[in-house]
Each structure stands twice: as structure tokens, then as C-alpha cells.
Specification:
Elements lengths: L1 E5 L10 H11 L3 E8 L4 H14 L6 E8 L7 H10 L4 E5 L11 H6 L5 E3 L6 H10 L2 E5 L8 H11 L3 E4 L11 H10 L4 H14 L2
Parallel strand pairs: 1-2, 2-3, 3-4, 4-5, 5-6, 6-7
Helix pairs in contact: 5-6
Length: 211
Amino acid sequence: MIDLHTHSLLSDGELIPSELARRYEEKGFKAIAITDHVDLSNIKFVVESIVEFCRAWPKNRIQVIPGIELTHLALEQFKPACEFARNKGIKIIVAHGETLVEPVLKGTNLAALKADIDILAHPGLISAEEARLAAKRCILLELSARKGHCLGNGNVARLALKYRARLCINSDAHAPSDIPTPLLLKNVGLGAGLAEKDLSKLYSFLNTHIR
């Protein structure tokens, strides 16, 4: 099992990266991405810190992938922020989508999908146009286990299946109590309307492309 959206105290999480990784390892996860919140004010510090941590993490343990979550950016800042992060060694770029429970700037989903991101997180009432673009650009649309963000899961799953966009299921964990079991993430997918065969394809794709 894989979780590609987690947070440490490098942004607003409660755990240092090593404890976050260990707690996921204990739950039986194969890999996680640590994707702390960044904007232009802290991107340099967070990117350098998480890349350094991941390079030092033991290779025979749970895989820890260096990531960031671009959060509440001005629309024109997504592309340069992605370019900076890639050049510094970030492997997973998450964009904080237009969740139903936060005042995310309208147009964020589309601006992020036009940039070099890997995952559009909790995109709320994502449109058909945006789902088609995600499919065309092979960007994963997230089904979220997080309270509030999960309200859009049904819409996201429906449009992803219709337009053949790739999906991922993530926790968006910030605290020890947010760290799920693999079964919980599976049930998030089933609750959003995915069938067992859809889940099998989802995790087969992620397992193939994670390393």
C-alpha cells in the first residue's frame, strides 16, 4: 500500500519525517511521499530539507519519496514553483486543489493541471474539462481520506472513471491519528464508488511506477 500525500512538522504536521515514516512502516505501507505545504515563502527550505532527509533514509526500509504540496499559490506561480522543485530533486509534486472546505482561489485546479504536477489533491467539484486534462497529462486525481476534503470524492471518482483519468487514494495525514490502515484507504475508494477491479488497476499502476 502507498500513500502519496502526508505532512511532517516541516509544514503543519505534528511529526518529524523519521517518525512519520516509521509509523507508516509499522502499519504495513510499502512507500509514502512526504509532501509538506509550500508557497514561495518556504519552498527553498522545505525542498532542501526533505530531499536531504530522503537521501539519508535507509534503502532497506519503507520507501520515502521527497515531495511538496503547492498550497494557495497565485495561479501564475505554479509553473515556476514546479520547475524549482524538480531541479532540486523533488519527485512528487502535489497541488492543493479546490477543496470544498477551504477558500482556495478559483482557477487553481486548472492552473495546477497545466503545470508539472503529479497529483491534484482533493479537487472538490472538479469539472469535466479538468478531468479530461488530467487524463491527457497523466496527472493523478486524489480521493482523500481527510475529513472535509473527502466531500468531493464521489464527483472526482465519477469523472475520473468517465474520462479515464488516473486516481490515487491518500490520507493527507497531519497527525498520528490521521495515519490510516491500508484497509481504510481501500474503503475510501470503495465508498467513492470504485469497484474492486478499479482498485486493483489503481494500485497496480502505482506499484509499477513508484520506483
